[in-house]
Amino acid sequence: MRSTRHVAALQRDSLAGHYSDPPLLVLASLASGPKHGHAMIEDIQGLCGTRLGPGTLYGAIARLERQGWIEPLPAQERRQPYRITPEGLAVLRAKLTTLEQFATAGLRRLEAV
Amino acid sequence: MNRRLARFLTRLYPRAWRNRYGAEFEALLETERAGPRAPFDVAWSALAERVHPTQSVAKEQWFSAHPFRSWRERAPLAMICLAPVPMLVAAYAIACLILWVGWRMFMPGLDSPFGVRAHGLANFYFQAGKSYYCAAPVLVGWWFEFVAVKFRLKAAWLTIGLLLLAWMGAAARIEANRRTVHSGLGHISISFNFCSLIPNAYDGMLHAATILLLAASPYLLWRFLRSRTLS
Q: Of B7, B20, B31, which Cα lies nearest the Cα of A42?
């Protein structure tokens, strides 16, 4: 029989399943179209359950922009939208393919347990 | 988040970063429903940006325009480079406390705990304390390397910090005597007499080199393994 404490522990443990690689999350968010900071935070939360802090988000944005994987669009009032560049799309595709291979292999091993 | 707090948090970032992202970041902070962790997230990211800036091009341009003000930008790095000094002083203060407690517990009637043969539990206690005292500079060095790797500090800053640590470790002297030490707390004093290294230059250098080697070895090993992995 599952106690309330057991269910709470399961819910807490499920947080460990949240994926948190801010640059990859930002790239994945921008893959569906240009967005500004607040929209990215909401989109990423819907995508994988992780709510990035503002400092973490802009740390990732600054690095991605420096690498040329995202670029700014004309500002809308004080908000600054960004879009993914073709190079960023290629990087995102490569990273997600690697992750997919890793996840497939990992899940196959789990099935064998 | 209110405007005043958002402005304060944005100002934690370096000027070059603020020039590029300041306005939009402040706007985000004002609109974002910030939880209690948001200020810590921003402060941590600002520190990371100061230690390992993303705006290096803007920074270089700014340095060339303000050559004499560039040291203000480098101040956080210098502070991290000096961080081992207070850490080692704190570690030695704990060593003095261990010595004082042992002196009070096991040899309350003696003028000094040094030069006396201890037995049983007292011997174990003082040997453990001595081991901690000897290992303190190395342990602080390892902590410093962890911070340096975490913040991706340049090897030059790490080297300066470790050299300081080795020099202090070799020059540290603890004295404990009721008759001769009057100024120290509990008749125990610690001094960093750097001139004492000069008369026994060989021993002092050997001691400092040993601390440096032991403290730097995990970092050197990490660099070696990393270079092999990358190649």
A: B31
Residues of chain A found within 8 Å of residue B17, distances taken between Cβ atoms: 62
Comparing CA positions, the residue from B24, B187, B16 lying closest to residue B107 is B187
B93 and B203 inside one domain: yes
Asked which of B56, B75, B94 is the last residue of a domain, the reply is B75
pTM of the model: 0.48
Q: Of B21, B27, B42, which has the smallest distance from its Cβ to A79's Cβ?
A: B27
Q: Which of B104, B130, B94 is nearest to B186 (CA)?
A: B104
Q: Which of B17, B28, B55 has its CB closest to that of A54?
A: B28
Whether B112 and B70 share a structural domain: no
Q: Does B219 contact chain A (CB < 8 Å)?
A: no
Query: Cβ B45–A56 below 8 Å, yes or no?
Result: yes
A92-101, B89-98, B101-110: least confidently modelled range: B101-110
Q: Provide the ipTM.
A: 0.77
Q: Which of A38, A59, A80 sits opposite B45 (nearest CB)?
A: A59
> What is the count of residue pairs from A and B with beta carbons less than 8 Å apart?
62
Find out whether B216 and B162 touch, Cβ atoms under 8 Å: yes
pLDDT digits (tens, 9 = 90+) for B134-193: 899 999 999 888 888 877 777 888 888 889 888 888 888 888 887 777 666 678 888 787
Beta bridge partners of A83: A71
| Nearest chain B residue to A79, by CA | B24
| Cβ-Cβ contacts under 8 Å, B47 against chain A | none
Give the residue numbers spanning the domain of B210. Answer: 82-230
- Number of other residues whose CB lies within 10 A of the CB of residue B34: 20
Question: How many angstroms separate the CA atoms of A83 and A85, rounded?
Answer: 6
Reading phi first (left if > 0) and then psi (alpha if -120 to 50, else beta), residue B222 is in alpha
Whether residues A78 and B23 touch (CB distance < 8 A) is answered with yes
Kindly state the tokens that stand for A11: 């819910």
Look-up of token digits 């057991």: A6
Counted domains in chain B: 2
Rounded (10°) angle between helices A54-67 and B38-51: 30
